[in-house]
Amino acid sequence: MMSHSSFWRWGMVGALAASLAILPSLALAQSMQTTPGSHVEVNIDSPTTSATISNGQIVDFGGWAVDASAVGGTGIDQVQIFVDPVNGTAAQKIDANYGTFRPDVAQVFGRPDWTNSGFNVTWTAQGLSDGQHTFQVWAHSTLSGWNNGTVTLAAVTPPPTAASMQPVNVPPMGIGMPPQQPLVVQQPLVVQQPPQEIVVQQPPLIQPVAQPLPPTEPTVACGGSPTPNVPGMILLPC
Fold it and tell me: For residues 49 and 212, what is the distance between their CA atoms, to the nearest angstrom?
């Protein structure tokens, strides 16, 4: 399984620069691809041809591109990667970042204006069937248009891991739900009270008191002899 990262590529810059100091033209020409009739050069550092990848894996595309006919710069303003192009169409398109720092390229060619000639993009592989796949790296020159370099990668399906081979127990529908309880209707609590005796309060009996009845006619007492004061009697002078 292949794994590429930008850290690996930058670590190789020092080693590459050391080797290029001796045989710069030969070393760069091994991976450089130039479209016939054009001065555009597209170099793919990673991934390398025939490397294997799988869906879900992060793939680091990196390299550099220049237009040798440009003056005062790389002449390149855009880099795109196309997956499995056929008759002008491709299954996928990946936009790369162009203008990354490549002092090794500037040193080898003696072109300080090519210091920022690198491109880079990390892509998560997806939608690839097992087998060979073509990746075309297209660089756009402001002078001569689009030109490309190609790398071929093999997509493989990784073998199943021990964890993925473990049986998965799928619980039946509704498992874990609490059992249904019978419906209980709460009736109001009725407390039987003992019969109460009804006591009717009678007004107290008032014993009649004999009252003196007024006489139908006044009794007249006359004379000088004292007359006892009898209720109902009127004393009149005679």
Answer: 149
